[in-house]
Amino acid sequence: MRLFLVRHAQIQPNVDLFLESTVPGPDLTEEGRRQADAVVDVFDGRSIDAVYASSMIRTRQTAEPLAAARGLDIHVRDGLREINSGHYEGVSYRADIEGFISTIRSWAERDLDVRMPGGETGAKTIDRFTAVVDEAATGAQDVVLVSHGAIIAVWCCVVAQNVSTASLSEHLAIPNTGVVSLCGDPTDGWRVENWAGQAVDS
């Protein structure tokens, strides 16, 4: 099957450059709504069996135009929400967030017992996302999961067979409505085919 992990469209904290992981979180900006509308064209001509979104408002709003165009319901799952920023919630990217970044690096290197200061362990974060992927893979061939940049990047580094943890810095940056596509299944594993428009070696 193919799995399409879509980062949500723009919210104001993306513009202002600070960490935001509260639930349900903010709405899309006007630019974000335009970006969400454009997702329909991204999947033009491709069969989509199901659309999932996290429990955060911005992912549901991003998924709505595509789901409406395909006549599909949006399956909302809390497991797809962003990494809990913990003590770094609301901190500017320009400030000292090395603790946040170093925790993500540890997870990407599969040291999943590390806890985000004030937040979840890597194991809990990866497991909740994987549970939704496993559900979505049941009886479907092409599934869109609208989620969040950091958790998409880290999950792929941990789970995908052809994404090196050494490339985390490169892969962490996923633009708003950027798509990471994978092929595979929960039994045989996953391989990334394309990362936000860039082909990935198999």
UniProtKB/TrEMBL annotation:
Give any Pfam family that matches. Answer: His_Phos_1
GO cellular component terms? cytoplasm
- Enumerate the GO terms in the molecular function aspect: phosphatase activity
Please give the InterPro entries that the UniProt record associates with this protein.
His_Pase_superF_clade-1, His_PPase_superfam, PGM_Phosphatase
Q: What is this protein called?
A: Phosphoglycerate mutase family protein
The major lineage groups are:
Bacteria, Bacillati, Actinomycetota, Actinomycetes, Mycobacteriales
